[in-house]
């Protein structure tokens, strides 16, 4: 059975600790030890208060469910210690030099870096863009004004541009755009809309290329304990972990 360490024990980490299937959670670390201890009660894993002890634990893969800062701080050490890495905070990989650095280290160490689908669907299909380049790749995200601490009484677009520009203005909303770009092999165009009439985070993906046209719409139900987090994101990690040892893999 695959042995998993959780880096980050907030809302997503607790869902993984509680609902994991087919894998064993063996180690937990969070900058707030009490959160790790709470998650440990759900999976009987050991809490490591210091990261050095956590990264040396007997485990196969580390799941990052913490933050972009945590990825930047710890990814190299995780891979260097011979662990595979699942990254939820994909926005960290918008830094091309950092991306090249960790992929080079993973290759040298014979390790894998996994990017789950997170709050969207269709990353496996969008990888066709690496073979048949896409003419268009657009991510349109719609959220309630309150979720972005904005007051508005009508639907309006508050950002339009490339993913890298979006990082500076809306750093907490970049993970999906970066994941799309990594899958398709090109930067995604991004639109962020606010709408007082929506109560879910809605992601619409529009892609066009030699293969035809793709349109995906996902309306995410918030996680039970944290409305800012998509429940689908946690489920995508659980599914990824479950499939790591499966003999039959559906999708590419």
Notes on the structure:
By secondary structure, this protein is of the alpha/beta class. It folds into 2 domains: 2-114 and 232-243, Rossmann fold (3-Layer(aba) Sandwich); 123-220, Dihydrodipicolinate Reductase, domain 2 (2-Layer Sandwich). 34% of the residues lie in helices and 28% in strands. It contains 9 helices and 13 strands. Strands 3-2-1-4-5-6 form a 6-stranded parallel sheet, with helices on both faces. A hairpin with a 2-residue loop joins β10 and β11 (212-220). α1 crosses α9 (231-243) and α4 runs parallel beside α5 (96-109). The longest helix is centred in the middle third of the chain and has 14 residues, at 96-109. The mean pLDDT is 93.
Keyword list:
252 residues, alpha/beta, Rossmann fold, Dihydrodipicolinate Reductase, domain 2, six-stranded parallel β-sheet, five-stranded mixed β-sheet, 13 strands, 28% strand, globular
Write out the strand line-up for the largest beta sheet, numbering strands in chain order.
3-2-1-4-5-6
- How far apart are the first and last residues' alpha carbons, in Å? 23 Å
Tell me the β content.
25-35%
* Mean pLDDT over the full residue set: 93
Q: Which H/E pattern describes the elements?
A: EHEHEHEHEHEHEEHHEEEEEH
The residue ranges in which pLDDT falls below 50 over 5 or more consecutive positions are none
Largest sheet, if any?
A: 6 strands, parallel
CATH topology of the largest domain: Rossmann fold
- Identify the CATH class of the largest domain: Alpha Beta
Helix content class: 25-40%
What is the molecular shape?
A: globular
**CATH architectural category of the largest domain:** 3-Layer(aba) Sandwich
Helix and strand composition category: alpha/beta
Superfamily at the CATH H level of the largest domain?
NAD(P)-binding Rossmann-like Domain
Q: How many strand units?
A: 13
């Amino acid at each position: 059975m695959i042995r998993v360490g959780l880096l980050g024990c907030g809302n997503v980490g607790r869902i993984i600790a509680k609902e994991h299937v087919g894998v064993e959670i063996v180690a937990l670390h969070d900058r707030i030890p009490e959160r790790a201890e709470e998650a440990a009660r759900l999976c009987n894993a050991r809490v490591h208060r210091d990261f050095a002890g956590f990264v040396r634990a007997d485990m196969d893969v580390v799941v990052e469910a913490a933050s972009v800062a945590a990825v930047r701080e710890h990814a190299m050490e995780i891979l260097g210690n011979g662990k595979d890495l699942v990254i939820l905070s994909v926005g960290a990989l918008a830094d091309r030099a950092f991306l090249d650095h960790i992929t080079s280290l993973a290759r040298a160490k014979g390790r894998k870096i996994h990017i789950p689908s997170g709050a969207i669907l269709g990353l496996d299909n969008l990888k066709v863009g690496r073979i048949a380049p896409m003419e268009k790749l657009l991510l349109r995200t719609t959220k309630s004004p309150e979720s972005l601490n904005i007051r508005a009484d009508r639907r309006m677009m508050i950002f339009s541009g490339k993913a890298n520009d979006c990082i500076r203005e809306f750093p907490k909303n970049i993970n999906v755009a970066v994941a799309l770009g990594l899958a398709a092999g090109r930067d995604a165009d991004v639109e962020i809309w606010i709408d007082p009439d929506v109560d879910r985070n809605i992601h619409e993906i529009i892609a066009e290329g030699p293969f035809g046209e793709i349109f995906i719409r996902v309306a995410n139900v918030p996680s039970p304990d944290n409305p800012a987090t998509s429940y689908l994101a946690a489920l995508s990690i659980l599914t990824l972990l479950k499939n790591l040892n499966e003999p039959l893999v559906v999708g590419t």
